[in-house]
Amino acid sequence: MTAPGQHSAPRVSALSAIPRELTTIMRPELPSLLKEMLEEIVGAIPEYADLLDGQGARVIRRGIEQNVVAFVEQVGLPPQRTTGTMPSRDEICRQFGRFEAYEGRNLDRLLEAYRIACQVALRRVRVVGRRYNLSAALLMTFADALFAYMGEIAELSREGYRQALVELGEEPDNRRRRLLRRILAGAPMSRATLKELAQQANWTLPEEVTMVALHPGSRPKRSELDGEILADLSDPEPHLLVPGHLDDMRRISLSLALTGCRAAVGLTTTLSEAPDSLRWARQALALSETGVLTDLPVVFCEDHLLQLWLLGDPALLRQFGKRYLRPLEGLTPTQRSRLSDTLRSWLSTRDTAPQMAEELGVHPQTIRYRLRVLERIFGPRLSDPDERFGIEIALRALRLQSRNRI
Q1: How many domains in the chain?
Q2: What is the CATH number of the domain that holds 134?
Q3: Distance CA 177, CA 203 (A)
Q4: CA 122, CA 117: separation in Å to the nearest integer?
Q5: Are 89 and 235 within one domain?
Q6: Residue 213: CA count within 13 A, CB half-sphere
Q7: How does pLDDT run across 157-177, given as a tens digit for each residue?
């Protein structure tokens, strides 16, 4: 690792030959120069576009700005004061390097961004030089200082990168865990970038994947897991990524590996839809823990599509029930339960009163009475196909919800 003091010599030799008055000329150029740098960096490295517009963009932009301003400020200092480090700028550069490591990338893109910024700065200096009739010798000296400065910040970023690799470790599990986190991040990413990360982790990108949500504390049998399965067991909500289609053989082997675990297996999706598969798996796991889904310890989403759809948004479902089952609100709990069972049976089977009576274990005359009550309180809504459909959905969801209260 490079010691901070090692950067002072090139800074003094390169900057001391530049007239400090040049700072006055450079400062007004900074806002437009920074804008031009960012535009060219994003144009050449599309992956950086999300970083500069998404969450945390303000911090990143501020860091880039500080790098440029720090150089200008150093030009304006007397030679005897250009020694030593610039803690804020140095830490920003290290953070840039650490970020690349945490994202599972090498430093090529970051160093390319530094190079592009340097080229934009030199191009601007040539324009300013013609405007103020600066000598060619001065422009050359400025270019030397700029390249030396770029070397400093690149080395600082390498320090941060190396530090992060030490923290993360270089075992395949760690590289694959970082890859899995990028897949699930939800941010747009080119196939080429994902392929590069997969190559670093010695993993082949699949077209289809199936996510598995694990209950915290559950640990699959690693010896039984397919070597191509990605795992993040350190996450507060641990999960697995199973590559390829979940055929019968893989389903059996996965069940064996999950013996003793409480888990839910999501739906098979494209790689880009992996976050959806994990969301459904976590939803199924939550429903199994409340007793709505009973096939513990391992739940397969494909066996419970209706339940996942009906119970996917509890708050919306409550509103749905209020809207379609309002005529039942004024009844006693016993009346409401009996009429709900009768209405659900009629809507789903359209059987005769004797058939419904046999299903519900009551007398046919009781069924006929209940149907008359339902016709009275629901009125013409039972004749409207859309209303009937909404009522049936609400009743089915209500029945599913009630399972964990039995």
Answers
A1: 3
A2: 1.10.490
A3: 11
A4: 9
A5: no
A6: 26
A7: 999 888 877 776 545 567 788
